[in-house]
Sequence to fold (229 residues):
Amino acid sequence: MTTKRAVVLCSGGLDSTVAAAEARAQGFDLYVLSVNYGQRHLVELTRVPEIARALGAKDSLVIDLNLRGVGGSALTADIPVPKDGAEAEIGRNIPATYVPARNTIFLALALGLAEVIEANTIYIGANVLDYSGYPDCRPEFLEAFNRLALVGTKAGVQGHPIRIEAPLLKMSKAEIIQRGVVLGAPLHLTHSCYDPGNDGRSCGRCESCRLRRKGFAEAGLPDPASYVA
Fold:
């Protein structure tokens, strides 16, 4: 039987971990790819090796690509992380935590790795329901990247297209958490905060923390993360 391989973009966060568990459930051998891009919340990345081991990944690769030279984001420049905003405003505008072209860059790296290891699928934890309004998490973006992968790779032009899969795209955060539990995803290892303290604890006040806490509450499950506030 032919081995099914998937490159999984994993940040160490909740969504990407559940997406990786979904790929495992679909019978793929996992090749986990993470990017150290100079992010403020580097503690998230430290969770990836243990997550990869828990999911039985065949390999886990970290690429260093410092986006602080580009800046333009609260995650890669000296811009404050927004906190304590009105819940109704989350997702209405593109927030300061948007990193210019991040998913374009990440998917391009994943596409290259997929060609090298002969994987025909890339998994990403993009979501358009409980999210912060990032343009590169929308179906339109992912559809466009699928077209790019088809015409811009050797695999694509030779009739072996590499597909981008975003299984969590239209799920609420609560649904993602519940699906993660069903799949046996190591949710206790994940980290979501954009502005963690020096001790690694989550701030509890940024949009990412608030969406996570809301999701666990709506799922009726305890949040294993440790919060400052």
